[in-house]
Amino acid sequence: MIRHLQAVASTSLIALILLCLAWEGWMAPLRTGGSLLILKAVPLLLPLFGILRGRRYTFQWSCMFILLYFTEGAVRAWSDQGLASRLGMLEAVLALAFFCSAIYYARLTAPSRITGKQGC
Length: 120
What we know:
The protein has helices at residues 2-27, 48-53, 56-65, 67-79, 83-108, 111-115. The chain is an all-alpha fold and 120 residues long. It has one domain (2-114).
């Protein structure tokens, strides 16, 4: 179960990085020829190696971090038109997949669950 959650989180994060690059690079940029919004993919690289290595702390803080991408995807899904709207929905879905898998990964790998101790 834990490996499955890590795989879902890793896959959705990498897919989100690729989506941001493709979206703002050539698929549906805000300006013709690309836009500087392509740089929104850079912050997604911060948690990447921690997620790939299964570091619980990275899963914890990246849960809050990824909500920015969910928000942007939801806003653009309902405010943009055409391809940009569909890409916004895809961004929101990928961010939600990452969020859910990271939350459950962090919960299942809590020290109290691993050692069998029950917290208050």
